[in-house]
C-alpha cells in the first residue's frame, strides 16, 4: 500500500502491482472527485426539497401542546443527518420561521441556544438578512428587528458584531441631525422676517422642489428600528448603548421610539405610582407587565427612581409630550415626593433626599417643561405641573423658567420651529388686540400660553414697553391663563425689568424711561386682578434698593396703589385732604381720586407675601435710607431734576407703603416687626421723620389697647373717668418713648423743649387733633343721594337694586359710627394735651432759641413729609397757641415761618415744595382769619401768651393789655409778612435757577387763596411772573407751563385783592417838607404799589418822592400825637428796642460792625455774597444814622438814590445775622423791658438773610424798586425780638 501511494502508476504497472496504469488513473480521479468535490450537505431547497420540507413542517407545527424546543431540536438533528442538510441553512430557516412567528420567543430562543452554533455565525446570518433590505425604498420588516432584539437580549449575539451590519453610518446620522437644526433655524428666520409678496412665490417654488427631492425615500434607519424593538421587549441596557452613539434626543425624536420608551417607563413606575401618586378617587387600568426577566426592575420607592427612571426620562427629553398620561404620572410622583420632603423633620433623611430633589429639578428642566412646549394647548397638563411647581420656592421656579425661556428652545430643532411659530402667532394676535375684542383675543392668548408662555409673554411685554395703551386690553385678556402661566408671567416681568440692556432713564437724563413706567403700570394691574405670587417681585425691588438703585420703587408704588387702593399724590383737593384726616372708611370714600374698590383680597395677598418672606420692615428701612442716599449717590452724576424725582419717588413710596402696613397689619404683627424709635434711628440709621412715621401707628395701637384694658379693669361710663383712663394709658405707653427720644439729639436741645413735647408732636396725627365734620357730612349726603337715586331707578333689576341699597346703607352706618368714634377720640386727646402743655417748653435760653429748635426739629422736617403732615404742622402750631402753652411765642413762630422762605424753597424737591406750599397756605389761613375780623382776633389772640410783646420774668399775666399786640399792629405785622413773602418770591424768580423758579411757582400756586391780598404786591408778582413766561417759553417748557398757570390764576384773584391802606391802617398823608424823614429800616418804606406800577426811571423817581412824603407825614404825626407810644426802630437783625436805648445800641453796634465787616470779607467770596454784604452795610449805616438831622437824612437819601440808579444789577437780599448776635440782642431786649413802661406795639421787621444773585437787566423797574424798599408801611413798632434762622 505504501508503494501505491508513493510511486507513479507506470512504475507500479512495471512492478506488476497493478494491471493497467490508465485504468488506475481513472479510478483515482473518480475517488478524489467523490471525496473532495461531491456535495455531502445540501443548502439549496431544490437540492434536498424533501428534507427541507420536513424541517419547515417541524418548525411550523402548533406549539400549544407538549411540543418543546428539545424535542424539535432532536427532530432537526435527525433531518440534518438523514437528508444531509446544511446546518447553516437550517439555522437560517429557523430564523426565518422565528421571524414569521415572532411571538413565540419562549420556543425559539431556547431552540437557537441549544442548536450549538457559533455567535459569530449567527450574527453574520442576521447581518446578511439586514443587508438584503438596505436598498433604496427598501423596508426592513419589524419582525427581523424583533428577532435581532430578542437574540441581543439573551446574549446570543453581541451588539458590537451586529451594529456594523446596520445602516446608516453614525457619521451620516450626525450630519442629518445638524442639517435638521439648520433647516429649523431657517424656517424660524423666515417666520420672523418681513417678506415681500414676490419673494413669497419664489419661496413656495423652492419648497416644492425640495419636496420632490425628498420623494425618493432613503432606506430605513435600521439602528433606530433595532432600538425600538429593544425598547419594546424591555432591553434597556442595549437600547441605552445604541442611544449613546447618537446625538442627544435624536433617537427619541422619532415618535415610535419615544412611545416605546414611554411604555417601558409606564411599566417601571407603576408600583410606586399606585402607592404614592394616584390622587384620591382616581382609577386607572394596570399595564401588562413585561415577561422578560432581563427587563429593568419596577420601582417601589422614590430612591429606586434614580436607578433607571431618571436616566430614561433624560433620554426622552421634550418627547415625553407624546404620552400626556406618563407626563401626569411623573408630575404626580414629583408632587408626592415634595410633600414627603417638606414633612420630613430629620436632617439626615432630608440630606439623603436632597439628591432626589436635584434629580426632580433636572427632570423638570430637561423633560417636563420642554414636553409641555410640544403639547398643543393642554391646559390640564399645565395645571398639573403647577401643582408640582408650587411646592418649590419661587427661586427654584424662576430658575427653571429662565432655563426654559433662554436655553431650552435653542437645543432642539423641533423647539426652534415651535418658538418661531409661537412668535408669529403672537404677532398676529397682538396686531388685532383692542378693547372691543378682548374676549376672543384673550381666548387665543390663553391657548397659545398653555404650551409656550415664556415666548408669548416676552413678546407681549416688549409690545407693552413700546405702546402703553395696550396695558388695559392685555390685562383683561389674560383671564384665560392657567396658574402656571401666571407664575411664568411674574418671572417674565421681573426679567424684563432687570434687563441690563435697557436704560432706565430717557436720553435727557432727567426723567424715568417710559418703558419702565409702562411695566410698572402693568405690574400693578396684573398683580391686583390675578392671583399671582408677589414674593419674587418684592424681593427684586428689595435687592435693587440694597444695591442703591431706586428706579424700581416705581413698581412697588404701583403695586401698593392698585392692590391696596392707597394712592399717594400731592395734587389732592382740599376736600380730599380733609377726608384723609378722618377714619379708614372716610379715606376710602373721599380721600382718593379713583375709588378703587374690592381691594380686600388683593391687599390681603400683598400683606401675606410681605409677612411670609419677612420683607415688610426691610423695605421700609431701605426706602428710608435710600431716600437720603439718592442725593449723595446720584447727586453728582445725574441731573438735579432727576435726583429730585427719584427722591420724591422714594419718599412717596415710603409713605404709601407705611400707610399700607399701618392699615393692614394687625397690632401684634406691627409691634412685633417695627422696633422702637431709638433703635430705628441709632442702629438702622433711619431719618427721624421716617422713624416716627413708622412708629406712629404702633403708639396709637398700644395706647388704644392699654385704654381698652383699663376700661375693662375698672368699669365706669362717666366721660371724665374715660378721659383719665386714656391719659393713664398714654403715660404708660409714651413714657418709654420719652426716654428713647433723648438719645436722638444732643443734651442742649432738651434745655428748651422737653422730650415729652417732642414725642407728642411726632406721635400725633391730624386724626387726633380735629374731626373733619364737613367731609363726613359731604360723604353721608352723597350716599343718601345714591340711595334716593337707586329707589327712583325703575330700570334696575330688583335684586341689584336691593344689593346696591344695602351696600350704600352699610357704608352710611359705618361713616356715622366712624365719625362718632373720632369725635370721642379727639376730645380725649385734647384733654390730654391740656394737662401736658405746662411741661412742654422750658425756655432755659431764650424764646427765640426755643422757637428755633421747634422749627428745626419738629415743624420743618414734618411739614414736607406729606400733605396731611403739612396741614398737621399748621394746625399743631395753632393748637399750641390755643392751649396757652407757657413759653411759646406764637407771633415769633409765625414771623420765623414767613420772614424768609428762600432757603427752604430752594432746598425742596418738587413734591416737597407742594407740601411746603400747603403748610404755608394753612398758616396763612389762620393768620388771614385773625387779620380779617377784630372780634375773632380779640377772641383767639387777644389774651393769649403767644401774642405777648413784652416777656416778663414773672411769666404771663393775662390781665395786662399793654403787653399784648393789639389788632391794628397785628395787621401791620401781617402786611410785613406779605411783603417778606413777596420779596423772597421775587428773589427766587430772578435767580434763573431751575429749582428756585419751579419751587417758588409751586408754592405761590398753593398759597394763592390767601396770598397775595395786597394789590401792589400782587402787581409786583404778576410783573415778574410775566417776564418768566416770556423768558422760559423756548428754554424750559415745564417752567413756562407752571408760570402761565400761576399767571392765569393770579389774574383771576385780582378782584379779591385790596389796596395797602385797606389791608392795614395807614396814617393820613399831608404835604410836609420831606426833610424830616428818618432813614432806617424800621420806618415806613416806599410803598410796594409804586414799585409794582413803575415802568420807567422817571416813574421810579416820582414814586420815591411820594413815598418820602408819606413816610415824613407818618413820622411827624406819630411824634406830635400825645397818646402815641414811644417809637422804636428795627435793628438790622430784626430785634426792636425803645428809643431811650437807641444810643446804647448804636454804640455796641458800631463796635461790632468792624468784626462783622471782616467776617463778610472772608465769607463773601462769591459775587452774590459780596453783593449781600454791601447791601447789609448800607442797611447798618442807615440804622446808625437814624438820629441825625433831617437835612443829613435827606442828603443821604439822595446819595443812595443816585448810587442805585448807577448800578446795572441791584443786589437786594440781606445777609443773615449770626446766632450769637441773635441771642445777645434777645438778652438785651429782655433786660430793657423788665423795669420800663412798655412801649406801644408797632411794625415787625426781619431781614431777609440771603444775598444771592444780582437782578437781571430785564428785572429793573417795578421789581427792583420793590426789593430795594426798606420795609412795609407801618407807623408803629413792636418791642419784640424776632430772629430768622434758616433751619
Automatic annotation (TrEMBL):
UniProt keyword Plastid, yes or no: no
Skewed-composition ranges (Low complexity): 1084-1096, 1275-1287
Subcellular compartments: Nucleus
GO CC, any one term: THO complex part of transcription export complex
Residue ranges the record marks as coiled coil: 798-836
GO molecular function: mRNA binding
THO complex subunit 2 N-terminal domain ranges (all copies): 2-277, 297-443
UniProt domain THO complex subunitTHOC2 C-terminal: residue ranges: 750-1050
InterPro entries the record matches: Tho2, THO_THOC2_C, THO_THOC2_N, THOC2_N
Keyword Coiled coil: yes
Skewed-composition ranges (Polar residues): 1112-1128
GO terms under biological process: mRNA export from nucleus; mRNA processing
Protein keywords: Coiled coil, Nucleus
THO complex subunitTHOC2 N-terminal domain residues: 445-520
Subunit structure: Component of the THO subcomplex, which is composed of THOC1, THOC2, THOC3, THOC5, THOC6 and THOC7. The THO subcomplex interacts with DDX39B to form the THO-DDX39B complex which multimerizes into a 28-subunit tetrameric assembly. Component of the transcription/export (TREX) complex at least composed of ALYREF/THOC4, DDX39B, SARNP/CIP29, CHTOP and the THO subcomplex; in the complex interacts with THOC1, THOC3, THOC5, THOC7 and DDX39B. TREX seems to have a dynamic structure involving ATP-dependent remodeling. Interacts with POLDIP3 and ZC3H11A.
Membership in a protein family: Belongs to the THOC2 family.
Name of the protein this chain belongs to: THO complex subunit 2
Organism: Pygocentrus nattereri (Red-bellied piranha)
Lineage: Eukaryota, Metazoa, Chordata, Craniata, Vertebrata
Gene behind this protein: THOC2
Amino acid at each position: 500500500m505504501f508503494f501505491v501511494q508513493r510511486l507513479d502508476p507506470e512504475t507500479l504497472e512495471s512492478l506488476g502491482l497493478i494491471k493497467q496504469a490508465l485504468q488506475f488513473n481513472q479510478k483515482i480521479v473518480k475517488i478524489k472527485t467523490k471525496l473532495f468535490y461531491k456535495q455531502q450537505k445540501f443548502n439549496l431547497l431544490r437540492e434536498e426539497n424533501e428534507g427541507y420540507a420536513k424541517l419547515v413542517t417541524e418548525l411550523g407545527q402548533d406549539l400549544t401542546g407538549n411540543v418543546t424546543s428539545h424535542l424539535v431540536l432532536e427532530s432537526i438533528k435527525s433531518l440534518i443527518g438523514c437528508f444531509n442538510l446544511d446546518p447553516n441553512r437550517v439555522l437560517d430557516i429557523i430564523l426565518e420561521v422565528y421571524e414569521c412567528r415572532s411571538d413565540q420567543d419562549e420556543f425559539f430562543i431556547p431552540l437557537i441556544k441549544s442548536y450549538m452554533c457559533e455567535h459569530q455565525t449567527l450574527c453574520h446570518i442576521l447581518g446578511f438578512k439586514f443587508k438584503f433590505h438596505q436598498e433604496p425604498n427598501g423596508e426592513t420588516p419589524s419582525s427581523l428587528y424583533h428577532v435581532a432584539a430578542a437574540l441581543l437580549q439573551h446574549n446570543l449575539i453581541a451588539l458590537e458584531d451586529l451594529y456594523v451590519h446596520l445602516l446608516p453610518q453614525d457619521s451620516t446620522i450626525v450630519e442629518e441631525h445638524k442639517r435638521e437644526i439648520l433647516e429649523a433655524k431657517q424656517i424660524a428666520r423666515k417666520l420672523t422676517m418681513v417678506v415681500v409678496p414676490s419673494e413669497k412665490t419664489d419661496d413656495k417654488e423652492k419648497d416644492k422642489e425640495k419636496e420632490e427631492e425628498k420623494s425618493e425615500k432613503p432606506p430605513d434607519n435600521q439602528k433606530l428600528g433595532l432600538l425600538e424593538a429593544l425598547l419594546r421587549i424591555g432591553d434597556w441596557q442595549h437600547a441605552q448603548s445604541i442611544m449613546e452613539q447618537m446625538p442627544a434626543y435624536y433617537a427619541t425624536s422619532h415618535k415610535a421610539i419615544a412611545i416605546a420608551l414611554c411604555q417601558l417607563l409606564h411599566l417601571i413606575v407603576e408600583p410606586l405610582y399606585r402607592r404614592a401618586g394616584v390622587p384620591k378617587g382616581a382609577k386607572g387600568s394596570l399595564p401588562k407587565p413585561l415577561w422578560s426577566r432581563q427587563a429593568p426592575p419596577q420601582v417601589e420607592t422614590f430612591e429606586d427612581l434614580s436607578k433607571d427612571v431618571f436616566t430614561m426620562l433624560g433620554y426622552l427629553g421634550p418627547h415625553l409630550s407624546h404620552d400626556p398620561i406618563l407626563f401626569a404620572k411623573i408630575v404626580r410622583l414629583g408632587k408626592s415626593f415634595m410633600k414627603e420632603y417638606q414633612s420630613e423633620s430629620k436632617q439626615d433623611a432630608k440630606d439623603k433626599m436632597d439628591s432626589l430633589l436635584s434629580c426632580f429639578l433636572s427632570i423638570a428642566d430637561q423633560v417636563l417643561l420642554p414636553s409641555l412646549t410640544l403639547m398643543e394647548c393642554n391646559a390640564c397638563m399645565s395645571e398639573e405641573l403647577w401643582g408640582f411647581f408650587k411646592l418649590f420656592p419661587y427661586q427654584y421656579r424662576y430658575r427653571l423658567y429662565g432655563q426654559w425661556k433662554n436655553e431650552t428652545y435653542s437645543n432642539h430643532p423641533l423647539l426652534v420651529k415651535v418658538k418661531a411659530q409661537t412668535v408669529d402667532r403672537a404677532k398676529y394676535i397682538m396686531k388685532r388686540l383692542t378693547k372691543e375684542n378682548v374676549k376672543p383675543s384673550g381666548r387665543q392668548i390663553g391657548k397659545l400660553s398653555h404650551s409656550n408662555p415664556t415666548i408669548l409673554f416676552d413678546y407681549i411685554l416688549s409690545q407693552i414697553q413700546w405702546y402703553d395703551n395696550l396695558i388695559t386690553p392685555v390685562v383683561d385678556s389674560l383671564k384665560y391663563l392657567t396658574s402656571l402661566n401666571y407664575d411664568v408671567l411674574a418671572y417674565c416681568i421681573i426679567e424684563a425689568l432687570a434687563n441690563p440692556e435697557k436704560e432706565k432713564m430717557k436720553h435727557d437724563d432727567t426723567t424715568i424711561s417710559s418703558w419702565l413706567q409702562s411695566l410698572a403700570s402693568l405690574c400693578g394691574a396684573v398683580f391686583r386682578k390675578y392671583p399671582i405670587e408677589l414674593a419674587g417681585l418684592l424681593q427684586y425691588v428689595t435687592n435693587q434698593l440694597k444695591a442703591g438703585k431706586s428706579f424700581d420703587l416705581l413698581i412697588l408704588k404701583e403695586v401698593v396703589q392698585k392692590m391696596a387702593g392707597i394712592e399717594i399724590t400731592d395734587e389732592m383737593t382740599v376736600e380730599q385732604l380733609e377726608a384723609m384726616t378722618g377714619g379708614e372708611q372716610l379715606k376710602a370714600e373721599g380721600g382718593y381720586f379713583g375709588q378703587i374698590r374690592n381691594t380686600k383680597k388683593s391687599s390681603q395677598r400683598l400683606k401675606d407675601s410681605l409677612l411670609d418672606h419677612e420683607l415688610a420692615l426691610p423695605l421700609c428701612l431701605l426706602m428710608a435710607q435710600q431716600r437720603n442716599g439718592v442725593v449723595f449717590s446720584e447727586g453728582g452724576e445725574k441731573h438735579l431734576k432727576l435726583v429730585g424725582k427719584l427722591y420724591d419717588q422714594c419718599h412717596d413710596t415710603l409713605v404709601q407703603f407705611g400707610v399700607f402696613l399701618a392699615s393692614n397689619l394687625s397690632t401684634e404683627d406691627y409691634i412685633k416687626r417695627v422696633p422702637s424709635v431709638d433703635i430705628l434711628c441709632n442702629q438702622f440709621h433711619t431719618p427721624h421723620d421716617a422713624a416716627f412715621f413708622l412708629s406712629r401707628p404702633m403708639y396709637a395701637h398700644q395706647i388704644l389697647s392699654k385704654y381698652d384694658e383699663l376700661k375693662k379693669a375698672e368699669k365706669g361710663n362717666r366721660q371724665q373717668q374715660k378721659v383719665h383712663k386714656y391719659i393713664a394709658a398714654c403715660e404708660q405707653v409714651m413714657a418709654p418713648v420719652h426716654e428713647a427720644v433723648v438719645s436722638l439729639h444732643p443734651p442742649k436741645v432738651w434745655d428748651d423743649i422737653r422730650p415729652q413735647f417732642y414725642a407728642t408732636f411726632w406721635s400725633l396725627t391730624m386724626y387726633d387733633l380735629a374731626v373733619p365734620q364737613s367731609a363726613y357730612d359731604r360723604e353721608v349726603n352723597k350716599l343718601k343721594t345714591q340711595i334716593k337715586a337707586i329707589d327712583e331707578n325703575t330700570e334696575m333689576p330688583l335684586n341689584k337694586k336691593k344689593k346696591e341699597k344695602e351696600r350704600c346703607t352699610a357704608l352710611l352706618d359705618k361713616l356715622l359710627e366712624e365719625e362718632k368714634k373720632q369725635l370721642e377720640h379727639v376730645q380725649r386727646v385734647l384733654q390730654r394735651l391740656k394737662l401736658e402743655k405746662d411741661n412742654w417748653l422750658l425756655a432755659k435760653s431764650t424764646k427765640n432759641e426755643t422757637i428755633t429748635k421747634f422749627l428745626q426739629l419738629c415743624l420743618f422736617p414734618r411739614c414736607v413729609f406729606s400733605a396731611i403732615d403739612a396741614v398737621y404742622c399748621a394746625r399743631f402750631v395753632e393748637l399750641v397757641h390755643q392751649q396757652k402753652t407757657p413759653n411759646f411765642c406764637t407771633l415769633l413762630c409765625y414771623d420765623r415761618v414767613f420772614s424768609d422762605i428762600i432757603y427752604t424753597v430752594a432746598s425742596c424737591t418738587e413734591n416737597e415744595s407742594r407740601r411746603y406750599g400747603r403748610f404755608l397756605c394753612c398758616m396763612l389761613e389762620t393768620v388771614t382769619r385773625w387779620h380779617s375780623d377784630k372780634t375773632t382776633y380779640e377772641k383767639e389772640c387777644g389774651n393769649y401768651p403767644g401774642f405777648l410783646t413784652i416777656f416778663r420774668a414773672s411769666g404771663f399775666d393775662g390781665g395786662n393789655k399793654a403787653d399784648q399786640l393789639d389788632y391794628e399792629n397785628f395787621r401791620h405785622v401781617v402786611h410785613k409778612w406779605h411783603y417778606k413773602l413777596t420779596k423772597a418770591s421775587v428773589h427766587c424768580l430772578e435767580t434763573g435757577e431751575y429749582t428756585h423758579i419751579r419751587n417758588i411757582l409751586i408754592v405761590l400756586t398753593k398759597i394763592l387763596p390767601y396770598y397775595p391780598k395786597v394789590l401792589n404786591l400782587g402787581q409786583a408778582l404778576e410783573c415778574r411772573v410775566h417776564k418768566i413766561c416770556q423768558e422760559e417759553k423756548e428754554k424750559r417748557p415745564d417752567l413756562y407751563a407752571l408760570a402761565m398757570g400761576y399767571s392765569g390764576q393770579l389774574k383771576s384773584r385780582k378782584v379779591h385783592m385790596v389796596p395797602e391802606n385797606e389791608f392795614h391802617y395807614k396814617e393820613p398823608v399831608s404835604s410836609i417838607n420831606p426833610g424830616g424823614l428818618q432813614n432806617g429800616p424800621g420806618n415806613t418804606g416806599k410803598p410796594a404799589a409804586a414799585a409794582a406800577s413803575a415802568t420807567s426811571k422817571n416813574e421810579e423817581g416820582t414814586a420815591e418822592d411820594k413815598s418820602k412824603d408819606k413816610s415824613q407825614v407818618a413820622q411827624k404825626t406819630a411824634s406830635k400825637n400825645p397818646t402815641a407810644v414811644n417809637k422804636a426802630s428795627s435793628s438790622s437783625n430784626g430785634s426792636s428796642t425803645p428809643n431811650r436805648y437807641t444810643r446804647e445800641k448804636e454804640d455796641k453796634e458800631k463796635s461790632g460792625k468792624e468784626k462783622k465787616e471782616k467776617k463778610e470779607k472772608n465769607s463773601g467770596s462769591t459775587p452774590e455774597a459780596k453783593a449781600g454784604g454791601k447791601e447789609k452795610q448800607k442797611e447798618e449805616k442807615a440804622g446808625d444814622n437814624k438820629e441825625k438831622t433831617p437835612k443829613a437824612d435827606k442828603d443821604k437819601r439822595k446819595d443812595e438814590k443816585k448810587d442805585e440808579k448807577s448800578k446795572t444789577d441791584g443786589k437786594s437780599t440781606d445777609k443773615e445775622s449770626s446766632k450769637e448776635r441773635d441771642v445777645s440782642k434777645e438778652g438785651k431786649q429782655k433786660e430793657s423791658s423788665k423795669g420800663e413802661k412798655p412801649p406801644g406795639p408797632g411794625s415787625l421787621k426781619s431781614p431777609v438773610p440771603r444775598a444771592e444773585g444780582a437782578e437781571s437787566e430785564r428785572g429793573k423797574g417795578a421789581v427792583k424798586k420793590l426789593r430795594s424798599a426798606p420795609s412795609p408801611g407801618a407807623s408803629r413798632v413792636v418791642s419784640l425780638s424776632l430772629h430768622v434762622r434758616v433751619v
